[in-house]
């Protein structure tokens, strides 16, 4: 099953932010998003040649966007509604 889909189903309705530690993890994550027909917030379809940052937000409508390092770090203190997931660690827990 698609790992991004599993997390969205598990945390339905919550904002899910993913940490992508390296290029291999980013490639796996990107493939999962492409399989789901995810789009950027502006509606542009995700493509295999798109570059992801280390922090990506995915909403239940399959819209995605970049998260800055500052926002990622501050969200642990200021916003308990955001689910934070280390994508590679989660993939290894299967």
Short summary:
It is built from 4 helices and 5 strands, in the order H-E-H-E-E-E-H-E-H. With 94 residues, it is of the alpha/beta class. Strand 3 and strand 4 (63-66) form a beta hairpin.
Question: What order do the helices and strands come in, and which of them pair?
Answer:
Layout lengths: L2 H8 L4 E5 L3 H13 L3 E2 L14 E4 L4 E4 L2 H10 L3 E5 H6 L2
Parallel strand pairs: 1-5, 2-4
Antiparallel strand pairs: 1-3, 3-4
How would you describe this protein?
The protein has 94 residues and is an alpha/beta fold. The protein has one domain (3-89). The protein has 4 helices and 5 strands. It has helices at residues 3-10, 23-35, 69-78, 87-92, and strands at residues 15-19, 39-40, 55-58, 63-66, 82-86. It has a 5-stranded mixed beta sheet, with helices on both faces. A hairpin with a 4-residue loop joins strand 3 and strand 4.
Low-pLDDT stretches are none
The biggest beta sheet reads: 5 strands, mixed
Total domain modules: 1
Supply Rg: 12 Å
Question: Which H/E pattern describes the elements?
Answer: HEHEEEHEH
Give the overall shape.
globular
Output mean pLDDT: 91
Q: Which percent band covers the strand fraction?
A: 15-25%
